[in-house]
Design a protein that fits this description.
Helix 3 packs antiparallel against helix 4. Helix content is 37%, strand content 29%. It is an alpha+beta fold. It has helices spanning 7-15, 48-56, 67-74, 84-95, 135-149, 162-165, 174-185, and strands spanning 19-23, 26-30, 34-37, 60-63, 99-106, 109-119, 122-130, 154-158, 170-173. The strands form 2 sheets. A 7-stranded mixed beta sheet has the order 4-5-6-7-8-3-9, with helices on both faces. The protein has a two-stranded antiparallel ribbon with strand order 1-2. The radius of gyration is 16 Å and the shape is globular. The chain has one domain (7-185): Leucyl/phenylalanyl-tRNA-protein transferase, C-terminal domain (Aminopeptidase, 3-Layer(aba) Sandwich). The chain contains 7 helices and 9 strands; from the N terminus they run αβββαβααβββαβαβα.
């Protein structure tokens, strides 16, 4: 296994609004000027077609039963920032109870999911994947439901994409993000 980033360094970085990504064998640290977030209130939007898919219950939803498999599936793309160091680092966080996965399973196996880090009332989404239609989207809906039930106030997506905008995702400035982060990690929010 590759040398991992120590959990205490990762947790401290997230607490300061910073996260790592691997690039060509090197770990780089990021704190974007604009940060993507998904609302955990009535602004969270489930597109109509996805609502129909959810009613059919195409997957069994599980949490934290295949964390490393989810990470490795997220890395299965032409360009990835998830290398062995990143895998080892987040598996370490998972073993300490800070990292989580939401998984979509069917009779053929793991079909989609996502993973991220949970600290206080914040969740820091790292990556998602789909092997079958809507699997990652369904995992996201279940993540939001879980976070709401746990009283979370922040779902950080790092950067904003068109894919995430369809769920009500939006960007905030770094200063606004740091205020949201403070509320999630111990303020009254």
């Amino acid at each position: 296994m590759s040398a991992a980033i120590p959990p205490e360094i990762l947790l401290r970085a997230y607490g300061q609004g910073v996260f790592p990504m691997a690039e060509e064998g090197e770990i780089l640290w990021f704190s974007p000027t604009f940060r993507g977030v998904i609302p955990l209130d009535e602004r969270f939007h489930v597109p109509r077609g996805l609502r129909r898919a959810l009613k059919k219950r195409p997957f069994e939803i599980r949490r934290d039963t295949a964390f490393e498999a989810v990470m490795r599936a997220c890395a299965e793309r032409a360009e990835t920032w998830i290398d062995e160091t990143i895998v080892a680092s987040y598996v370490g966080l998972f073993e300490q109870g800070f990292a989580h996965s939401v998984e979509c399973w069917d009779e053929e196996g793991l079909q989609g999911g996502l993973y991220g880090v949970r600290i206080g009332r914040g969740f820091f989404g790292e990556s998602m994947f789909s092997r079958k239609t809507d699997a990652s989207k369904i995992a996201l809906v279940h993540l939001v439901d879980w976070l709401k039930s746990e009283g979370a106030v922040l779902l950080d997506t790092q950067w904003m994409t068109d894919h995430l905008r369809q769920f009500g995702g939006y960007e905030v400035t770094r200063d606004d993000y740091l205020k949201m982060l403070g509320a999630a990690l111990g303020g009254d929010g």
